[in-house]
Amino acid sequence: MSTSSPLPQLIGHRGARGLAPENTLLALDVGIAAGCPWLEFDVQLHPSGQLFLLHDLTLDRTTNGQGLASECGWPALRALDAGQGQQLPTLDEALDLIEDRAQINIELKTWDGTAAAVAECLRTRLAEGAAPTQYLVSSFHLPELYEFKQRLPEVPVAVLLCGVPLDWAACATELQAVALNQSAEFVDARLVADAKARGLAVNVYTVNDVDEYRRLAAMGVDAVFTDVPDRLRRL
Question: Any catalytic annotation for residue 141?
């Protein structure tokens, strides 16, 4: 399969989870080394007030811990092995590591305060000279995303979807989002066209197959989230 369409940008998914333990500093570093212009990771708010990187609400799949992350004390959480001796990093540690070597998509995984805490963290970064466009904040939890946008309107947001809404991409317009982050399982040419008509970028997750990557390029998507940026970058 071939296409003359420009190939979508690569967004390292959870850093580069196919090459290193997901949502760790090592995965972020590997994603940068693999040439990703963007890195994505998941952020949760711990009851202690700390922001940390983890996808699941439970610890069992990606660490040597068990149970809900929210029920694990902060020192114990930090002592866990997230793979290859890696800790669960804090948001500040992740941002310090990346600096300006890649743009950053922060997914809000929890609610009830996560948006406010992330907004405060990024406000500090902006005051230190970071550009708002260095960041893109996304979430499936649209009220939490709305809360973030109210608190820090200068930082762009993206609506995460795992399906096709009846109103197509209208929800993203309502949130003043700049992008639609859509599941590869539900990519619909009409949704892409509607998003483009609204001035939205379309980013698709998670794409690890070369032929699928080319197919999405022909559809006009702007970027793909990938676990294996080294594989797609060969194109």
Answer: no
User: Pick the catalytic residue: 8, 11, 12, 13?
Assistant: 13
Label each residue of the chain as H, E or C.
CCCCCCCCEEEECCCCCCCCCCCCHHHHHHHHHCCCCEEEEEEEECCCCCEEECCCCECCCCCCCCCEHHHCCHHHHHCCCCCCCCCCCEHHHHHHHHCCCCEEEEEECCCCCHHHHHHHHHHHHHHCCCCHHHEEEEECCHHHHHHHHHHCCCCCEEEEECCCCCCCCHHHHHCCCCEEEEEHHHCCHHHHHHHHHCCCEEEEECCCCHHHHHHHHHHCCCEEEECCHHHHHCC
Cα distances (Å, whole numbers) of residue 191 to 71, 170, 188, 203, 222:
39, 10, 5, 12, 13
Measured between alpha carbons, how far is 184 from 224 in angstroms, rounded to an integer?
9
User: pTM of the predicted model, to two decimals?
Assistant: 0.96
Selecting among 17, 46, 55, 214, the annotated active-site residue is 55
Per-residue pLDDT of 108-139, as tens digits, reads 999 999 999 999 999 999 999 999 999 999 99
The question of whether 13 is a catalytic residue gets the answer: yes
